[in-house]
Every structure is written in C-alpha cells, then in structure tokens.
Amino acid sequence: MYNDARADPDIFYNEDDGYYYLTGSTYEVKSTDSTNNQKDSYRSIGLKRAKTINGLKDAEEHIIIKPENGTPGHEDQYPNSFYGWSAFIWAQEFHKINGKWWIVAGFHKGASSANGGWCNNTILIPYTGDEQSIKDGGFLEAENWGEPTVLEGAAFDVTYFEREENGKAQGYWLFPKSAGLYLAKAKMGDGVTPLVDGSLEHIYQVSQQFEYGKYAPTPEDNSEGSDQAIVEAPFMFEHGDYVYIAYAGATVDKYYNTNVMRAAKNADLQDLSSWTTADFPSFDTNDTYTGAYGADEASYERKQAGPGHISLAHDEAGNIVMAYHARPYPEIHSGSAAGGLFDQDRNTWVKAVNVRANGMLDMSLTKDQEVAPANRTVTITVTVGEPDTPVEPSITGIRVKSEPTKTKYTVGEQFSADGLVIEATMSDGTVKTLDAADYTVGDVDMSAVGTKTVTVTLKANDQLTTSFVVTVSAKTEPGKPGSGDGSGDGAGSDNGNAGTGADSGLPSSGAAVLGLGGAVVVLAVAGISLTIWRKRRA
Q: Is cis: bond before 88, omega within 30 of 0?
C-alpha cells in the first residue's frame, strides 16, 4: 500500500523539478479506524513528493489546502473556506497547462460545514510561485496556491490531456456526465487560463454489464441484482501508437472496476467512432481479491476489492505505472456506511501496467506473471583483463615532399641526397615526415649524360616506393692554340683555366695582344718625350 485512506489517486511527474508526486481524495482518519462518516471525509488536499515512484510510499504527506482553516494570507476575508470554496474535495489532479501548473478538483461552493457539502463545481487552482520555488519544493507550500477559476462542464472527476497537433500543443478536457464521457478542447496560449474552447463532444455512453454495479462479475459472495449505471473517473494517457482512456464503472464498493478505451494517437479524439473498448473490465475484484497483487503486503492489506479510479505515469525507466484505489477484502467495516463513499478504507496502491502485442494495456498481470520468481535474480560474471594496447597506425604510402637541393649535375660529379624530404601517409589518415634512416635512396649512374629516375624505398616495406628525377649533362671542354684561326689542341694557355701543356708562348687572346701593342706605344711616346727634353736643355 502506498497511501493509507486516500482514494482517487493522481500520480504524476513534474519536469520542472524532477520529482514524482502523489495525491488523492483525503480521509481525516486511518483506514483501520472504526469511524466512517461524512465529517472525516474529503476535507483537504494532501501531496507527497519523492525522486522515485518507490520513494512516494514512505514520503511525508503535506496538506496544502484545507478550507476549514481559511485561505492562507486572506483569513480575514475567507476564515473558513478556500477563496469561498470548501469540502467536499474530490479527485484532484495536477496538470501543467499553458506554461502554468494547476490543481483541477471538484469543490463545494460555500463555507465549510461540519458534514461538508456535495461537489457542485470543478475549479482550476493556479500555482503562483516562480520556477525556482518549484525546484525548492514550493508545491508543498499552501501559500503558493492562488484564487480558483470555475471550469464549466462537470462537477468532479475531470481530467486533462495534451498532445501536439499541427506543430502546436492542444489540450483536451474529459468530463464524466450522466454515465457517459464528453471531450472538449481547452483554450491554449502562453499564460491563458485553459477554459473550455468549443463544444463538449459525446464519445462514450454506458453500455456494458460490468458498469452496472451488482451486475458486475465479482466473487461468489456477490448478491445479484440491478444497480445504477456509472461511468466516471476517466484518465487520458498516451503511449506508443495510441491514446488511452481508462475509466471506472459501477459503484464504489467491491463492484468498482476499471475499463480501457483507445484511439489511434493521430485520430480525431472528439469523434466517437475513433474509440474502441474491450468487452470486459481491464481490472476488477476478480483480479485482486485473492491477494495476488498484494504479495508484498501484510494482514488485511493483501486482498483487495473494487480497484478503480486510476492514474498512469511513466517511471524512471519508461515503464507504465498505475496508481489505483481499492478496499480490503473482505470488508473490515460494518454498518450502512461500510463499502461506501464515507468508508475510509479506500487505499492507494501502485502496480505495473503491461502492453500487449496488439497495443492494448494489460493491467491484470501479477508480479509472478511478469517475471517468474526464479528469474528475478540474475548472476553476471565480469572478467577484467589487461587494458588494450593502442594500435599504432601503419604506413600505407610514401611521397616526395621536397626534392634534394641539387638535381642538375655534369658527368662525373657525385650525387647528393641532401635536402630530400620523404613524407608517409598513415593508416589513420594522418601524415608524418620520415627520418633518413627509414628509407633507402637508389644508386644513380653519374658517368653518362641523361635524365635519371631515383627510386626511394621504405625499409619496413619494400613494396612502398616513390621517386624523383635528376639531370646529368656533358662536361664543357676548353679550346687549344693552333693555326691562327682560333683552333688548336689546347696545348697553350686556357683563358685563365689551368692548362695542360708546357708552352710559354704568347697567349692568343685579344686581350693579351692588346696589352703588347699598348706597351710598344708607351715606349715610343716615352722616347719622343726624352728627345724633346734633351733639346730644351741644349
């Protein structure tokens, strides 16, 4: 059991603070107490908060609205009501709509009285704190809930659903009325109060035997007979390819049960023909009275009757979880109020919901059916080995990045690879420059004129090669003195280059001849000058 003496549970996740919450219609006494009367019923709103769904079971409940204590901060104006509203308070739900959180609940209009009053309106109570206050746990503070607005359509058990349509959020209000279900669109827009927008469309009407109380299939102690037809407590939920409506049928005693309708997730939800339903209850006393769902409970809590008024949420792993209320079986109270609205032994339980191959929700699997006890403990062997040695990339190709400094030679010169740079392409796509020790440079024939291809080979893999070209030209030959025509065999002087002969004769160049002629002229001029000087002395 998750919540003692709490009916009509609403379990939800708040994405603004990362917490799960649980609430329900409140009784002021414990489920096992002997009293069962109106004065202890439906007089406040309590709320639990925890990081996980499992944590909600033992979380502290905070009473955030209690009309008989007055309105927080406005006690002078509303000393015994919540902004003029009071008990009974039924089936509150919490929804974020148009960027704001709201409590959606059935209330009685007027001041509190000893025995309460029947719900006659559904109201929207806004959260007035800021985003930071939500993270700080502000949902649990009474002063953060503001003045209500009436939502026309039904007096209680109203729920809200939202999906994306044409790229925008579209909300829907689902109302139970006259043993039927009616769906209306909500007014949307940032900061807009989400009242009904348009007409209420009829999408379901009571039609099945199990929706008629005593006609419902229950254990053999059932007293057959006619009873009132009831369709109430709807909840809309999307999962996978479908939108689901779970609703309760029959009276709130052991005959209470849960059924499910569904429509394709892109269907017109306001069209009755979009919806299909099963011919049997999805969850009823036949499923719960043996204690199959209370296997972890003790004493009277194990066996339950009348499971209904559910809400659905996704847990931390994305699984569907259902919160529902049910009574102990057999009934622990006696008298005319036993098993009725004012018997406080309707408690909240939580269980898993499965999805069948056809997409229908299955609420009736027990823990043993979901996972056999023998399969609940799994042994895993983990082997820890040495860390993997990083794989060094290998060379997949080489190329000449820079040719040698000298690539033109004459016959007989010595080849030099100075300045040669070889680059390697690696298997991981990178490149690197190789050291000279990583490759060999092929031999070059320098004795003959021609264009020479020089091959470079990777030492580690002689299949990887690259090449470059050098040019070898003929050596230039010097001339010889000869017959006076400039030809000769090179036995004389070689224009400044070292000669090979021993001839000491005059050079044949024009510069040398000019030098000799110039000397003769100088001497002649000197002789003339000397003769003139001598004459002047005479």
A: yes
For residue 118, give the DSSP letter. Answer: -
Location of structure tokens 């892109």: 266
Q: Which two tokens stand for residue 357?
A: 């191959």
**With the C-alpha atoms ordered 59, 47, 191, 315, is the resulting torsion angle positive or negative?**
positive
Strand 361-362 to strand 149-151: parallel, antiparallel, or no bridges (unpaired)? unpaired
Count of residues making up the chain = 538
CA–CA separation, 241 vs 264, rounded Å?
A: 6
Instruction: Give the domains, in start order, of the chain with CATH numbers.
Output: 6-371 (2.115.10.20), 395-473 (2.60.40.3630)
Which residues, in sequence order, are bridge partners of residue 262? 244, 276
Only one residue has tokens 């479908």, namely 242
Name every residue whose Cβ is closer than 8 Å to that of residue 437 and which is 6 or more positions away in sequence.
Answer: 459
Measured between alpha carbons, how far is residue 328 from residues 310, 331, 346, 348, 400 in Å? Answer: 17, 6, 8, 11, 89
Average pLDDT over residues 72-87: 97
State residue 190 phi and psi, 5-degree precision.
-55, 120
Please state, in angstroms and rounded to a whole number, the distance separating the CA atoms of residues 325 and 9. 7
pTM, entire model: 0.71
Strands 408-410 and 465-473, by their bridges, are parallel
Cβ(403)–Cβ(419) under 8 Å?
Answer: yes
Question: Rounded to whole angstroms, what are the CA distances from 476 to 406, 415, 432, 472, 509?
Answer: 19, 19, 42, 13, 19
Tell me if the bond preceding 234 is cis, omega within 30° of 0. Answer: no
Task: Specify whether the CB–CB gap between 236 and 174 falls below 8 A.
Answer: yes
| 496 pLDDT more than 60 | no
Mean pLDDT, residues 483-491 taken together: 41
